[in-house]
Amino acid sequence: MMKVAVFASGGGSNFGALLARKATGDLHVEFSVLISNNSTAGACDRARAAGIPVVHLPPGRYSDPALYLRELSDVLARFRVELIVLAGYMKKLPPEIVRAFYNRIVNIHPGLLPAFGGAGMYGHHVHDAVIAYGAKVSGITVHFVDEEYDHGPVVLQETLKVLDADTPQTLAARVLELEHAHYWRAVDAIAQQRLSIQGRRVTGNV
Ligand code: GRF
After folding, report:
1. 182 in active site
2. pTM of the prediction?
3. Percentages (nearest 5) of helix, strand, coil residues in the chain
4. Domains defined along the chain, listed by start
5. 22 Cβ closer than 6 Å to some ligand 1 atom
6. Average pLDDT of the chain to the nearest whole number
7. How many CB atoms lie within 10 A of CB 31?
8. What is the H or E stretch that residue 132 is in?
9. Sign of CA dihedral 137, 138, 140, 146
10. Is 111 in the pocket of ligand 1 (CB under 6 A)?
């Protein structure tokens, strides 16, 4: 099974949903390590409860980005990481890591790309923008990570209707449920190498 590093900064409900799918046998990966910039993140507690090693690695602690890069590279090598799964990770990965893990870093975005994404478009900002625009659908985008925010090839998108009564909060809650229901499918398809990738076009059985 592919060895996965999960990166998370917050509560880690997506990480929790992935752990649950592994427990039911739907998701075929080995969670080797949870890496967080935030030692008090709920995601760290979830990892410890599941017996998964936690590494606290805040980029801001390093005065020299090269030292951070070396530390992060060492951790990924030590745990023999083959696939990086971002699950609410609020820091940008060093470009050297993005290049070294080309098409082996996946992220989930709580909106439909490319419409509601890019720098500054995270968390409630996405749902605020969707409601303010008057969009009738929203959804989730799972994509490979390249050097631009929210830009790499799309692996999976799922949509939901924006209801007339929706507020950013009610919409956020339904989008998060959609994330929990589907992220594991994309991760499993990548881990089991069911996808073929040609430029931006990712096809295959997700
Ligand atoms: C999710 O909405 C995800 O799309 C975004 O960050 C949020 C993380 O939530 N990248 P959680 O920590 O998994 O609960």
Report:
1. no
2. 0.97
3. 35, 25, 40
4. 1-101 (3.40.50.170), 108-181+197-206 (3.40.50.170)
5. no
6. 97
7. 22
8. helix 124-133
9. positive
10. no
Q: Which residue has the tokens 């390590």?
A: 33
Peptide bond into 114 cis (omega under 30): yes
Backbone angles phi, psi at 3, to 5 degrees: -85, 125
Contacts of 95-98 with CB under 8 Å at 24 or more apart are 95/147, 96/69, 97/69, 97/72, 97/73, 98/145, 98/146, 98/147
For the CA of 86, the closest atom of ligand 1 is 10
Ligand 1 touching residue 139 (CB < 6 A): no
34, 37, 176: residue to mutate for ligand 1 pocket, most atoms within 8 A of CB: 176
Q: What is the pLDDT of residues 131-175, one digit of tens each?
A: 999 999 999 999 999 999 899 999 999 999 999 999 999 999 999
Q: How confident is the model at residue 57 (pLDDT cuts 50, 70, 90)?
A: very high
Q: What confidence tens digit (pLDDT) does each residue in 80-127 have? A: 999 999 999 999 999 999 999 999 999 999 999 999 999 999 999 999
With CA atoms as reference, report the closest residue to 90 among 45, 57, 136: 57
Q: 61 in helix, strand or coil? A: helix
